[in-house]
Amino acid sequence: MKPPFFPLPSGRAALVPSVLAADFVCLKRSLAPIKKLADWVQVDVMDGHFVPNLSFGPGIVAAAASASSLPVDAHLMVEEPGRFIDAFAAAGAGLITVHAEAKLAGACVKKIKALGLRAGLALRPGTPLKRVLPHLEELDLILIMTVEPGFGGQAFMPEMLGKVKAARALIAKSGRGIWLQADGGINALTAEAAALSGADSLVIGSALFSSRNPAAFLRALKKKI
Ligand code: DX5
Prior knowledge:
By secondary structure, the protein is α/β, with parallel strands linked by helices. It has helices at residues 27-31, 59-68, 85-91, 105-114, 161-174, 188-196, 206-209, 214-224, and strands at 14-17, 41-46, 72-77, 95-99, 118-123, 141-145, 179-183, 201-204. The chain has one domain (14-224): TIM Barrel (Alpha-Beta Barrel), CATH 3.20.20.70. It is built from eight helices and eight strands. The chain has an eight-stranded parallel β-sheet with strand order 1-8-7-6-5-4-3-2. The chain starts with 13 loop residues before the first strand and ends with a helix. It binds D-xylitol-5-phosphate.
């Protein structure tokens, strides 16, 4: 199956709802109202080892794709992502992000690319940006965690804005069209700060799905970023 193309919008950061904060009883109820406003959706996969939480398996990819009619980005917060890449690719994820701190992260990036998908590398807040350097030639996306991975609804870590800025400069220097994603505690205020720092993809969970009108939230956000 040809992986879905991720449309990077021109002139603004991509808005990427995180399914972690959606209504698991009925994903359609959460995602259908915003499917024309979001650029793609992200599924946060957690294994209870790499992070102290458990979330979904590959089945969530098809569910999120069907509920949103959008491409799906799988953020693997798992100790051994190499064990799951084939399953998430087969489930239809078009972009798979592994953590630089996970086992065999470099080999996983190569495997994701070999499958014809977009490959992302994520950094915990405490992991230095230089950990992406060995993989720059292969990466399609760098994910800067702006919270400690594991749970939605946490407060944005403003000290990560410097890392976003440095990542933007690194990408510019590399001359490659690598996307820069900020993930964690993104709301109307922090979205603007992250975009101004150079993020061109913003993962939004609790601020979006806890808002009274998620569609209005995204429409307003688009005007700001
Ligand atoms: C943390 C998750 C969250 C999620 C976004 O491991 O990766 O960052 O996607 O959740 P909010 O927007 O609620 O911080």
